[in-house]
From TrEMBL:
It comes from Podarcis muralis. The chain crosses the membrane at residues 55-73. This is P-type ATPase N-terminal domain-containing protein. It comes from the Eukaryota. Keywords: Membrane, Transmembrane, Transmembrane helix.
Length: 119
């Protein structure tokens, strides 16, 4: 009689990886909520980039810079920059306040208690 050897592999729902696995399984997905636009490092560049996408801001900065040309200037060039810088600063403060409100709301939601159901 011919003897045959058959191998059988049994899989179970254990959380431990198989010993022959080279890479451990990836960690579970993070379900934290994040709706903020900016970080501490990206606020200034991103905010200026967004503000200069508005055509009115580009126009007023162009007029203020044109005032530095001696043949064209109508009044003191430094005075022409004041309103533009004021508008840019007020808009940046408004955007910062809105983003901080989003951050606070995210933190509140992310630290809420929740029910976890097991299968």
């Amino acid at each position: 009689e011919k003897e045959t050897c058959k191998t059988r592999r049994v899989c179970s729902n254990l959380l431990a990886p198989w010993p022959e696995a080279e890479n451990p399984p990836p960690p579970p997905a993070d379900n934290r909520l994040k709706t903020t636009k900016y970080t501490a490092l990206s606020f200034l560049p991103k905010n200026l980039f967004e503000q200069f996408h508005r055509l009115a801001n580009v126009y007023f900065v162009f007029i203020a810079l044109l005032n530095f040309v001696p043949a064209v200037n109508a009044f003191q060039p430094e005075l022409a920059l004041a309103p533009v810088l004021f508008i840019l600063a007020v808009t940046a403060v408004k955007d910062l306040w809105e983003d901080y409100s989003r951050y606070s709301s995210d933190q509140e939601i992310n630290h809420m208690e929740c029910l976890v159901y097991c299968r």
